[in-house]
């Protein structure tokens, strides 16, 4: 049902934490495959991806081009989740994603629907609360997600956004105009 793409660069420890949070989704049958789009890391990122059973694509290209290469390599999922390696989704995320996907499919508007997770820091220190509030406001009011919120879209919608992203500053800027839903589950960023 869902293919996860994780763009990495020397994220060995963060990737392990990110992948651990995806396990409940794999157990519930929500996650069909995980592709790690690595930027030629020189740490243990490739070993972590291999040990977790992920497919690894290693390129020297910028983030969005690695995401595009991983999208071309997707074999199983109609829906794609682009997730940063510094993010761990909070428990229960897979039920909400499943409900979102089912709702979009039933209404016949799956190609128009995209979603992001709520942004939150693992450590809740005072300076971090301000950053968290700014990202939340930016996402809710202006529909401008940050990469750390993850991005859930159909394969077709993501492919169109990547094409438009070649003319925009980033994938996230290209997708912001689409109907964007903010899920209740949080993307916990480890600073």
3D architecture notes:
It is built from 7 helices and 8 strands. It has 191 residues and is of the alpha/beta class. Strands 3-2-1-4-7 form a 5-stranded mixed sheet, sandwiched between helices. Strands 5-8-6 form a 3-stranded mixed sheet. Helix 1 links the parallel strand 1 and strand 2. Helix 1 runs parallel beside helix 2 and helix 3 runs antiparallel to helix 6.
Q: What's the helix and strand layout?
A:
Blueprint: E1 2-8, H1 12-27, E2 31-38, H2 45-51, E3 55-58, H3 63-73, E4 79-82, E5 87-89, H4 93-107, E6 113-121, H5 126-142, E7 151-154, H6 155-165, H7 171-175, E8 179-189
Tell me the span between the first and last alpha carbons: 30 Å
Sum up the overall morphology in one term.
globular
Q: Mean pLDDT, nearest integer?
A: 85
The biggest beta sheet is recorded as: 5 strands, mixed
Number of strands: 8
| Low-confidence spans | none
Succession of helices and strands: EHEHEHEEHEHEHHE
Tell me the strand order in the biggest sheet: 3-2-1-4-7
What fraction, in percent, of the residue positions are helical?
Answer: 40-55%
Amount of beta strand: 25-35%
Number of helices: 7
Structural class: alpha/beta
Q: Give me the Rg, rounded.
A: 15 Å
In short:
By secondary structure, the protein is of the alpha/beta class.
Name the descriptors.
191 residues, alpha/beta, 5-stranded mixed beta sheet, 3-stranded mixed beta sheet, globular
